[in-house]
Amino acid sequence: MIRIGSSCALSIPMVIGYVAETRILTDCSSHWEEVARYCIDNDIYLIVTPCINDGYNHAKIPSNEEWTKLIANTCSYLKSIGANHNNTRLSIINEPMKFCTKEKYAELINMAVPITHSYGFKVGAGNEEFITAQARGNMYQYILSHCQFDILDIHIQGSCDTKEKTEYWTNTARSWTDKQIDCTEAFYSDIGTWNGWQLLLTQLSNAERIGCKNFCNVFNNLDQSAFPLNTDNWKRLSFCVNGKQRSPYWQDWLKIIEQKAPVPNIINLISEEEDMKLEILRLGSKGNQVKWLQEILEIEYGFENEGGFDGIYGVKTEAQVKAYQSANRLLVDGKVGKDTIFDLIIKSEMPDYWWKKLLIYMAYER
Q: Are residues 285 and 203 in the same domain?
């Protein structure tokens, strides 16, 4: 399953589907705070992209102090409206090669990652047309080898204007990394035509094939007031303009959005330990929840259990939990409550798998 939604959602009317990528522009012309709150309130997965350009695509390279302050303020605001690592993440800079070198981009990523991680959010990076990225020094390969971010964000657009090119570039992106890959911006054709519609379906199927969890296309609904530049040009990419349908394939696309949506889309997090159905695991606990804990500690984080997964929370399991908590700046108490559970799952390679397995164990034991 894959979330389908909206790229460059600079206003609430542009948020269509189960995921939205919104941008923080340097001239504050986007309404990203409103979009973010709307997404959180409506269980829409949120990707926030701090940028180094304004609404007219003029560059403004921030100082280190300005950049780190922007990232910290962004994360702080997101936390204040109920964002967490299960419904929100950051993606660093849209189309960076238009505005800076790959070396400067890597520097900005590396400054942003530890700040973002300290607030509990994952970080994506990339966000560039493949041909542009390769022409300007193999940007994707460079940041993958020089930066420690979580998700590779790609653009499946003008570089992927045929079936063959789409297959080539998505295969190439997959060959670069074993990280999660997402498509934060897709589609550059006329969605009012049959050929354009088929191209979008091709791009979606290839994104899904390489494991993308999120697919954001331009545009589901173009709010022209949010785009002061080239709005007439953007119309051809848009299923709807200012809420008015312009493509005959709009209803078909809505059906696909619903069919592909993960169920549940976003697992609601429990805010207080006393409200949890999950037992707080500690020294002396026994059962399938402990077995799940031992499995994820070994399979995802390399803590060996020579005696197998016995479901008994002994001194070895407690020591492993304490080591994990210490390494991840959690309270080191050897107990597995909500903070440790969420951290274990969200930092794993397959968070959905571990959520489902834990929920099965919880139901089984009750």
A: no
Give the domain extent around 315.
273-364
Can you give the three-state secondary structure of the chain, one letter per residue? Answer: CCEEEECCCCCHHHCCCCEEEEEECCCCCCCHHHHHHHHHHCCCEEEEEECCECCCCCECCCCHHHHHHHHHHHHHHHHHCCCCCCCEEEEECCCHHHCCCHHHHHHHHHHHHHHHHHCCCEEEEEEEEHHHHHHCCCHHHHHHHHCCCCEEEEEECHHHCCHHHHHHHHHHHHHHCCCEEEEEEECCCCCCCHHHHHHHHHHHHHHHHCCCCEEEECCCEECHHHCCCCHHHHHHHCCEECCEECCCCHHHHHHHHHHHCCCCCCCCCCCCHHHCCCCCECCCCECHHHHHHHHHHHHHHCCCCCCCCCCECCHHHHHHHHHHHHHCCCCCCCCECHHHHHHHHHCCCCHHHHHHHHHHHHHHCC
Kindly state the average pLDDT of the residues 173-177: 97
Average pLDDT, the chain: 91
User: How many domains are contained in the chain?
Assistant: 2
Helix axes 194-209, 250-260, angle to 10 degrees: 10
User: Is residue 268 a part of any domain in this protein?
Assistant: no
pLDDT in tens, 268-311: 544 333 344 567 899 999 988 999 999 999 989 999 887 778 88
Q: Kindly report the CATH number assigned to the domain that includes residue 100.
A: 3.20.20.80
Q: Is the pLDDT of residue 337 over 90?
A: no
Does residue 54 form part of some domain?
yes
Same domain, 353 and 291: yes
User: Tens digits of per-residue pLDDT, 192-221?
Assistant: 999 999 999 999 999 999 999 999 999 999
Question: Do 17 and 96 reside in the same domain of the chain?
Answer: yes
Are residues 203 and 339 both part of a single domain?
A: no
Q: Are residues 154 and 298 in the same domain?
A: no
